[in-house]
Write a structure and sequence with these properties.
Layout (H helix, E strand, L loop, with lengths): L2 E11 L3 H12 L7 E7 L6 H5 L6 E5 L5 H11 L2 E6 L5 E2 L3 H11 L5 E10 L2 E3 L27 E4 H7 L10 H10 L5 E12 L5 H4 L4 H12 L6 H24 L3 H13 L1
Parallel strand pairs: 1-2, 1-4, 2-3, 6-9
Antiparallel strand pairs: 4-8, 5-9, 6-7, 6-8
Helix pairs in contact: 6-8, 8-9, 9-10
C-alpha cells in the first residue's frame, strides 16, 4: 500500500561500503518535515557493506540481492518501497541538507508536477568541475535535448511512484545508460521540472563507475533509441529527430569499430544507421 506524502529514497550499491555510508548520512541529514523511508539495495557486495550499514539499522532498510546491475537494484528498491514519491541516490553521490525540502516546496507550489530534479555540483577526483554548456540541465519539455546525452540525473530526481510504474521502471537488460533510457521514455510525455539550485554533489573519477567500466556508451543509447522508434505512440516529428540521432550515433560507433578492426560491428552499425 502506498503511503501518501512519504518519500521513498533508494540507494543502490555494490562494494562501496565507505561511500554508501556517506550517501546514507546525507539522506539522514535532510532538513524539513518530510517523511522519508530509506532503502539501501546491496547488489551482491562481497565487501563490508552490510556491517558498515549496521549502525543505521533503525533508520535504514537494508536489502541484499545477487549481483544484477544498478537497474535491477533500483527496481528492487522501488518494488519494496511504500512512498507516494520515489527519489534515487547513487552510492557515490551526496545530497545537501535542503535537497528534499526544496523539492517538496516546489511540488506544493506546482501541484501538477510529476517529476522534478535539482541542480548539481560536479566533483572529479576531489576537484570541482565546471560543466560544459551542453551539459546544462533544461527545464520542462526536455525530450528532444535529451536525445544526444542524458540530461536527467538519477541522484537529483524525485518522481511520483505512479509515473515510475507506468514507465515500467529501469530496463534491466541495459548494463549502462539505463537512466538515459528511462528518462527519455518519461520525458516523451511528461515535463521534467528543474529546481535550479545545486543540491546534489555528483562525484566522479572512481574506477568502478559505469562510464569507466564500459567503452562506447552510445551502444546502449542506440538500444534505447531503437526502443523509442518501435513505439507507435511516438509522433512523426519527434520520430524523425530520434531517427536522425540514432543514425548519428550509429555512424560514430561504426567508425570506431572500423578503427578497432571490427568490420562486422562496423557493418552492423552502418546498417542500423541506413535504416534509421
Amino acid at each position: 500500500m502506498t503511503a501518501h506524502g512519504l518519500i521513498s529514497v533508494i540507494i543502490p550499491t555494490f562494494n562501496r561500503h565507505a561511500l554508501v555510508c556517506e550517501a546514507v548520512r546525507s539522506v539522514l541529514a535532510q532538513r524539513g518535515d518530510q517523511a522519508i523511508e530509506l532503502i539501501v539495495v546491496d547488489d551482491g557486495s562481497n565487501d563490508e557493506t552490510e556491517a558498515a550499514l549496521a549502525p543505521f539499522a533503525d533508520r535504514v532498510r537494508y536489502l541484499w540481492q545477487p549481483n544484477r546491475g544498478v537497474a535491477a537494484a533500483r527496481n528492487t528498491g522501488a518494488r519494496s518501497s511504500t512512498g507516494e514519491w520515489l527519489a534515487f541516490l547513487d552510492s557515490d553521490d551526496l545530497w545537501l541538507p535542503d535537497k528534499l525540502a526544496a523539492q517538496i516546496a516546489f511540488i506544493r507550489a506546482h501541484p501538477h508536477t510529476r517529476i522534478c530534479q535539482t541542480g548539481e555540483t560536479w566533483i572529479r577526483n576531489g576537484v570541482r568541475v565546471n560543466r560544459c554548456q551542453h551539459h546544462r540541465t533544461p527545464d520542462g519539455n526536455i525530450f528532444l535535448p535529451s536525445l544526444r546525452r542524458c540530461l536527467v540525473s538519477s541522484s537529483a530526481v524525485m518522481m511520483r511512484r505512479d509515473l515510475f510504474d507506468a514507465a515500467g521502471g529501469f530496463d534491466e537488460s541495459l548494463p549502462a545508460c539505463e537512466d538515459y533510457d528511462l528518462w527519455l521514455r518519461i520525458a516523451r510525455d511528461t515535463p521534467v521540472a528543474l529546481i535550479d539550485q545545486p543540491l546534489v554533489i555528483k562525484r566522479r573519477g572512481y574506477p568502478d563507475q559505469l562510464s569507466q567500466r564500459y567503452w562506447g556508451m552510445d551502444r546502449f543509447r542506440v538500444q534505447a533509441l531503437r526502443k523509442l522508434l518501435a513505439d507507435p505512440a511516438l509522433d512523426g516529428a519527434r520520430r524523425a529527430t530520434v531517427a536522425a540521432v540514432l543514425a548519428e550515433k550509429c555512424a560514430i560507433l561504426a567508425n570506431g569499430a572500423t578503427k578497432r578492426g571490427q568490420p562486422n560491428d562496423a557493418a552492423r552499425y552502418r546498417d542500423l544507421a541506413a535504416h534509421a
